[in-house]
Design goal:
Length: 460
């Protein structure tokens, strides 16, 4: 059996390990899940599921600091933010509980035609079947909550493959589920290599695939799913921000710094492209740079750290290369642009990089914010929309007409008005357009995806 070593991404010291599942083990877990679902007498009642989820909340509340440290230690998210992630994760379980009271069907009108006379019809919702959850590293606890807890809540057996870099948080949550009373066969922890994950994805016994991670891998996996299998994909983008004239730059800059450098930019909707009026762009870039330069870079488990490491040294090298290219292609470096050892990169602001630079056309997934000047806001809208990615966006303005103009003009699944692009609460829809994703995330929407309608018609 192969073992996956887990390291702290700052100092690269080993902090634990998990045993990888080969296909025989994964296949056994999937058979158990399939048999469990096919035997309808074995399904857990709603009351049982609610009792288990309530116990999960209690256990997580008692271990919140341990879970936060684990997130910081294996994922590199600063403790201050890791604690927020734990609080969100606990809220997410509670959202699942609340949403179960809304997981209902509907009455279908009858008697409208001769054929439908003397009929009574309605729908109910049933679990869709075995769920395969493949997750990402950047929110190692909360993403698992979003993918696994809806499955548990609606009564689907679930197999969960964590990100290779952050399996320990996932393992801890699965063990909490067991401790809370969920029979082990209902949730299987399946750390594995990509080839095993591909075999799981292609297996017709899987009913629903939920994937969070890179677009390259996600779209490849979608191409392999069996006929009839549903899926949801969540990737990333190059989140744009449109800035109007005559705004409160101090408040805006504070929000852009948070949205751009939170978790060192390793967020799928992180602020990346800021379009500002030509007369204001340099000043805005300078203010963002001054604030970003004060952020403390270091080991995420240190209380003072505000920007932790990138998940792997090769990502530091990639970000550094992209920034160097952007500067060589005419962008003005306002701050940062330096490696800190082999695992960290300084918060970086670039003014007016070329429109074809990698920092302008691809998701940086690092601590880099670019500011572009525009003369006509229609140019800014066009630039914001030109990429094959579209996720969340933002506009900062004091004018309601400008705000609605931006809402209408931006090709995005969400437009934040006077808020950064990375804003999210876990009950709202969260979805990428175009190459940024497929389907709609957010706990209530995922619970809906993991169920299916059953139609009942009575002749009366």
């Amino acid at each position: 059996m192969k073992t996956l070593e887990v390291v702290n991404p700052f100092d690269l010291k080993s902090i634990g390990s998990v045993t990888l599942c080969d296909w025989d083990i994964a296949d056994r877990y999937l058979k158990i899940s399939d048999d469990l679902f096919r035997n309808r007498k074995s399904w857990l009642s709603i009351e049982e599921r609610i009792r288990i989820l309530k116990k999960v909340v209690q256990i997580m509340l008692g271990r919140s600091e341990q879970l936060a440290f684990l997130i910081a230690n294996e994922g590199g998210k600063p403790l201050i933010d890791a604690r927020v992630e734990v609080a969100r994760a606990i809220d997410g379980v509670e959202i699942c509980i609340k949403e179960l009271s809304h997981a209902v069907g509907e009455e279908i009108p009858m008697g409208l035609t001769t054929a439908s006379a003397h009929k009574l019809a309605f729908t109910i919702r049933e679990p869709i079947g075995p769920v395969l959850a493949i997750s990402a590293f950047n929110h190692p606890l909360n993403l698992i909550i979003h993918q696994v807890m809806p499955a548990v809540a609606v009564g689907c057996p679930v197999l969960v493959k964590p990100a290779d870099d952050t399996p320990l948080s996932c393992e801890a949550l699965v063990n909490i589920l067991y401790e809370a009373g969920l029979p082990k066969e209902w949730c299987s922890f399946v750390p594995c290599e990509l080839k095993v994950a591909e075999q799981l994805v292609a297996d017709p016994r899987i009913a629903f695939l939920t994937f969070i991670g890179s677009a390259k891998v996600g779209w490849m996996l979608r191409s392999k799913i069996a006929p009839g299998v549903r899926c949801a994909l969540e990737h990333g983008g190059c989140a744009p921000v449109i800035v109007d004239t005559n705004i409160d730059t101090a408040t805006m800059v504070q929000k852009l710094v948070k949205g751009g450098f939170y978790h060192s930019g390793q967020v799928c909707v992180s602020v990346q492209r800021v379009y500002a009026p030509k007369n204001d762009a340099k000043n805005i870039a300078d203010q963002i740079a001054k604030s970003a330069s004060k952020l403390v870079v270091g080991n995420a488990i240190d209380e003072k750290t505000e920007c932790g490491p990138l998940i792997r040294p090769r990502e530091v090298d990639r970000v550094s290369q992209w920034v160097d290219e952007a500067i060589a292609e005419g962008g003005q470096l306002m701050c940062g642009g330096e490696k800190v050892g082999q695992t960290c990169y300084t918060p970086t602001v670039i003014l007016n990089p070329a429109s074809n630079s990698k920092v302008s056309t691809q998701e940086i997934f690092g601590p880099v914010v670019c500011v572009y000047s525009y003369e006509d806001v229609e140019e800014a809208f066009a630039a914001a929309n030109k990429l094959p990615f579209a996720f969340q966006s933002a506009v900062f303005t004091n004018r309601i007409d400008f705000g609605f103009r931006a809402i209408q003009s931006l090709d995005a699944s969400a437009v934040m008005v006077n808020e950064h692009t990375a804003f999210r609460v876990d009950w709202m829809p969260f979805a990428g357009r175009k190459q940024s994703g497929y389907g709609v995330g957010g706990i209530p929407y995922t619970m809906r995806d993991m169920t299916q309608d059953k139609m009942i018609v009575f002749s009366v």
